[in-house]
Model the fold of this input.
Amino acid sequence: MARIFITGSVDGLGQLAANALVHKGHSVVLHARNAQRAKYGLAKVPGAESILTGDLSSIEETKDLASKVNKLGAFDAVIHNAGVFQVPENELSQDGLPLLLAVNSIAPYVLTCLIDKPKRLIYLSSGMHKQADADLNGLKLTKPSASYSDSKFHNLVMAMAVARQWPKTYANAVDPGWVPTKMGGPGAPDNLAKGIETQVWLVGSDSQSKVSGQYLHHKKQDRYLRQADDVRVQEKFFSFCEDVSGVKFPSES
Ligand SMILES: NC(=O)c1ccc[n+]([C@@H]2O[C@H](COP(=O)([O-])OP(=O)(O)OC[C@H]3O[C@@H](n4cnc5c(N)ncnc54)[C@H](OP(=O)(O)O)[C@@H]3O)[C@@H](O)[C@H]2O)c1
Done:
């Protein structure tokens, strides 16, 4: 049995993955943006171990969430699943950052750095990362910006950088397909059950799932923007996240 923490797990793919993992006998800690959503989430995932709260658009709340996770003790896996899609470009977080960049890109970085290292890390990316600006030109401290595609490329860069820098950890990015959640919309053409199978497989005991540095779609490696493997791109992303959050990416040890 594994112990798993899933961000953004009161709805959508996070909630579905949580239920599937609980059903398989794993211990799952959920995450919601606030107490009201936590109450909703706990009712939707009977059998979950507990639920933690923290608004990922706030760097302080994200740091606090990492401490709450650490207070619960060791985890085998963390699934960085929470995300937003259609956010007006000019909508800013309380830290003055584009909201989408704060939730989708900076929060997974901060949580990865501050949560005691699990054995497995999974980052929800998307096929839409292929439309990203792979030179990360939006990551300027003066006026940062990011499209949804850019943020999903950041998630991929994060997975590849972690896999390279922490060889004892299995870190991978997952494209769940375009599926009918709140984010995907009712007309999304892909299979919802298949949208969680890779995450569930990656945290399980199948020896074939002990992979790292991969971009997976439906449990198979898929093509991705190779700039994600470029150390300079990875360092640019980490350096930006460190500058805005004050959190340094720790070495393995
Ligand atoms: N659906 C797709 O077709 C698709 C395709 C490719 C990739 N993905 C990726 O898959 C992941 C899950 O997507 P989904 O389709 O399940 O989306 P979803 O149904 O909209 O669920 C997203 C989850 O993230 C949470 N969340 C959003 N902002 C938050 C914040 N500031 N603080 C804390 N939690 C926050 C949401 O909380 P609330 O419920 O309270 O809003 C919700 O639980 C995302 O990373 C997404 O980019 C999805």
In short: Strands lie at 3-6, 27-32, 50-53, 77-80, 120-124, 170-174, 214-217, 220-221. DSSP finds seven helices and eight strands in the chain. The two ends are 25 Å apart (CA to CA). Residues 8, 10-14, 33, 37, 55-57, 81-84, 103, 124, 126, 176, 178-179, 181-184, 188 surround NAP (CB under 6 Å).
